[in-house]
Amino acid sequence: MFVCSAQIADAQSSSLARADAIRIAEAFSLADHIGDGVWEGWQAAPFAILLITPKKDFLINHPYPTDDFQSEGVDEILGMEVFSRPSGTFSPRLLATFPAVAGVSTIVVGQAETTGKSSTMWVLTLLHEHFHQYQSAWPDYYSGVNALDLSGGDQTGMWMLNYPFPYEEGDVVEALYQVRDETLTVLSSEDKSASLKDLAGALENLKANVSEKDFRYLSFQLWQEGISRYTEEVVAKMASGGYNATEAFAELGM
Q1: Which residues of the chain have pLDDT under 70?
Q2: In which order are the strands placed within the sheet that holds 56-60?
């Protein structure tokens, strides 16, 4: 799937920082190791990345670089051509996936140091975001999302992050906690039927405390982000049970 990483060179022809290249190469290598072991067809999903740094945005593994990007040559660590443009379009703290370049679902991510993540957590975050690329690759994803009528006219997908859900309203917070507690009870209870009824009641209470549109958004995010978080946890467990990180990645510190 990717041309990178088991043996990592010390030199590179692009201006991509060595540590950034090593982390991205590790994410590609881990994705190859996981393959379709979590989700059937995941390996075929695009894995385009836009890395945001203070001076440049680096476009990596993208099939259709737009004219605002210039080739940096083939990066010797990644073993693939890297493109760049001046920074300033997106925040260097961003961790998101949306059609950022040429309509292709692209992971837009700041550097590990800027986003406050260790090398290991940064790589796992890329796999989390890569699952979003798998979700959006389904033929009916965008039509289904558009049918939710939540974007407010935003065509970039940023509404998914910026939607004004009433996170801080007291009744909503309390209702969310109740759903969380009842969900945990279902998972640990032997009497599933009784606990599922309590969970259904908690969900109805939550629904009563938000607008119909807000509940649509919440339901969408429970699917989109909830399953991605689950996938991230499964990938971490799979990686700890037989995956060997490259020496160069280990030298960065976990």
Answers
A1: 1-13
A2: 70-75, 80-86, 56-60, 48-52, 104-110, 95-101
pLDDT recorded at residue 13? 60
Cα–Cα distance measured from residue 193 to residue 133, given in angstroms and rounded to the nearest whole number? 35
Would you tell me how many other CB atoms lie within 10 Å of the CB of residue 29? Answer: 22
Read off the pTM. Answer: 0.86
Range 161-164 contact pairs with CB under 8 angstroms and sequence separation of 24 or more: 161/96, 163/217
Nearest by Cα to 71 from 123, 14, 122 = 14
DSSP 59: E
For CA atoms 235, 240, 246, 251, give the dihedral sign: positive
CA 103 distance to own-chain centroid: 17
Alpha-carbon gap, residue 158 to 164, rounded angstroms: 12
Distances (CA, A) of 142 to 13, 73, 93, 115, 153: 38, 33, 26, 28, 14
Q: Specify whether the CB–CB gap between 130 and 45 falls below 8 A.
A: yes
